[in-house]
Amino acid sequence: MAQVEVQTQAAPVAVTSPPPSQQQQQVVGGVASDGLSVTTSLYVGDLDPTVTESQLYDAFNQLGTVVSVRVCKDLSTRRSLGYGYVNYSNPDEAARALDVLNFTPVNGKPIRIMYSNRDPTVRKSGAGNIFIKNLDKTIDNKDLHDTFSTFGNILSCKIATDHLGQSKGYGFVQFDNEESAKNAIDKLNGMLLNDKQVFVGHFLRKQERESDVDKVKFNNVYVKNLSESTTDEDLKNVFGDYGPITSAVVMRDADGKSKCFGFVNFENPDDAARSVDSLNGKKFDDKEWYVGKAQKKSEREMELKGRYEQTLRETSVKFEGLNLYVKNLDDGINDDKFRELFSEFGTITSCKVMCDPNGISRGSGFIAFSTAEEASRALAEMNGKMVVSKPLYVALAQKKEERRARLQAQFSQMRPGVMGPAVGPQMPMYPTGALVHGPEVYYDQGTPAIIPPQPGFGYQQQLVPGMRPNFFMPMVQPGQQNRRPGGRRSGAGAMQHKQQPLPFMQPRVIDSLLTFFPPFSLLHAC
Length: 526
Hints:
The protein has 526 residues and is an alpha+beta fold. It has helices spanning 53-61, 91-101, 121-125, 141-148, 178-188, 206-216, 232-239, 269-279, 297-318, 335-342, 372-382, 400-414, 507-516; strands spanning 3-4, 27-28, 31-32, 41-45, 66-73, 80-88, 105-106, 109-110, 112-115, 129-133, 154-161, 167-175, 192-193, 196-197, 199-202, 220-224, 245-252, 258-266, 283-284, 287-288, 290-293, 323-327, 348-355, 361-369, 386-387, 390-391, 393-396. Mean pLDDT is 75; it is low at 1-37, 417-451, 456-464, 469-473, 485-499 and 504-526.
């Protein structure tokens, strides 16, 4: 095997941090807001969390006129997401920056640059994408790029790393065409990189990899829907045509009666795969056999769960904007009446009133229309409409997770407003309709600035909106809260008031008050 030498040196570029230019504008999805071509927009990944937009601007502005710079951040924490976008005024400058600054350390961490493309079809299609494993841990993104760049134009190149930034021993390279990817696989698969033999092959998604493993790497075959008369010998005779068999058995109960399923084990996995492809769905003794890979219970549960989730996703996408949730239904409304109620708005594809195990309506249901316009019209006209003396609630159907997230977001927005704004100490408020006993107030004691203090008497009437002016509201001073002149302390019960003249309410004080407040009466002064 020929050994491929990999260069591991990167030329650093000095990065300074003056303020960013005032000409910067926002970049959304790697495309400038002024409509520049996507070839002028660069994606910058693997950024250190401390890298700022000013640093990126200084680094990239050395190679051309930078139109805009943006480091993407988390909406809630405002922390860097580790990637950003840089827009140039023309494609030549963007190409030069990609060539010169790619894998250049910024704040001690090499950045990874590629052209930004808002259309995800190329990236998600997997065209030109190859997978490399068994890589030496010292090989980084630049080494991988330098090794594969001889086979064609590379759109992206990345080594998978753990949370500490250490290589996991595998990576991905995506070329701009399938021919370059095929050429790289033919030339480098099985070659030595840093004295380690690497595997290079086409990239397969997880579902495709699992499907590929299921089709090839198993020896044991599961067969069900057998006739009760089928024996072990019958299984050997049928499956023996596809290769050597080590065992074949029909499962039976304690009485020896067939359970109508069994297992066949092959020596060669390829023979087992061929038998599944050929025999699955065939009829024997007027019964259609199911033939597939024998699975553990955990594998079956995982597969069924995956199918169920996939079905839910497909259904959600299919009925997005078409499915309505209706609640507050009258107990007498069944599926037929429910359909008739909404039939005037368009074609109904499904309709269901939810019921409990006893068949009693839960007061809610779902109805799906053929178009989003029909669903929107039904929602607008039926929401709040009175049906059998009950107002309907109609809304777009949501998943449980989406509904929970929306409610949590609404609750979090409401919480800051639950507690009112902090206020300073306020003057005590006493109920009207009874004379309130309070502590004495002597000269030189501060009073609230509602009415300026008047010299000449201790108690001074305070005008407070909503309080009858012929009642006194004395000022409570610190340390005097427990003082009750002219009154008694009560135990656990309320203070017992007795209509007795207060010793400090002398005619002289009343006269003074009448002088200051002429409209007041003497109704409660006696």
